């Protein structure tokens, strides 16, 4: 489970991250990243990075979708410290993600984030 302050909840936040952000596609997922300040956070405090997930019915049945979402949530949680403050990240699973191994999803997420962050990740 992601901490409450690191979750995207509102449709507008998902839409903003997907429309205004950059994206990197991989065979089983697409990562959208918007860097910048969150208008809903008070001035002077560095806002934490926030993440959301989109796993459609094209991925599989409910059991498969929840499994994919749990895997992606676990992977993103481990990488939150690498994300810039105030960034919004949306990870969208593609059909076939339910058949991908956990390690493969991890490699694809790392490659997408590496591309989006320009190689600055530690």
UniProtKB/TrEMBL annotation:
Q: Name a single GO cellular component.
A: ribonuclease P complex
Enzyme Commission number(s) of this protein: 3.1.26.5
Query: Which EC main class describes this enzyme?
Result: hydrolase
Kindly indicate whether the keyword Transmembrane helix belongs to this entry: no
Q: Which Gene3D superfamilies match?
A: 3.30.230.10
**What keywords tag this UniProt record?**
Endonuclease, Hydrolase, Nuclease, RNA-binding, tRNA processing
Return the InterPro entries for the record.
Answer: Ribosomal_Su5_D2-typ_SF, Ribsml_uS5_D2-typ_fold_subgr, RNase_P
Catalyses:
Endonucleolytic cleavage of RNA, removing 5'-extranucleotides from tRNA precursor
A GO BP entry: tRNA 5'-leader removal
Query: One MF term from GO for this chain?
Result: 3'-tRNA processing endoribonuclease activity
A Pfam cross-reference name:
Ribonuclease_P
Q: What does this gene product do? A: RNaseP catalyzes the removal of the 5'-leader sequence from pre-tRNA to produce the mature 5'-terminus. It can also cleave other RNA substrates such as 4.5S RNA. The protein component plays an auxiliary but essential role in vivo by binding to the 5'-leader sequence and broadening the substrate specificity of the ribozyme.
Q: Which HAMAP family match?
A: RNase_P
Q: Which family does it belong to?
A: Belongs to the RnpA family.
Assembly description: Consists of a catalytic RNA component (M1 or rnpB) and a protein subunit.
Give the protein name, as stated in the record: Ribonuclease P protein component
Name its species: Streptomyces zhaozhouensis
**What is the primary gene name for this protein?**
rnpA
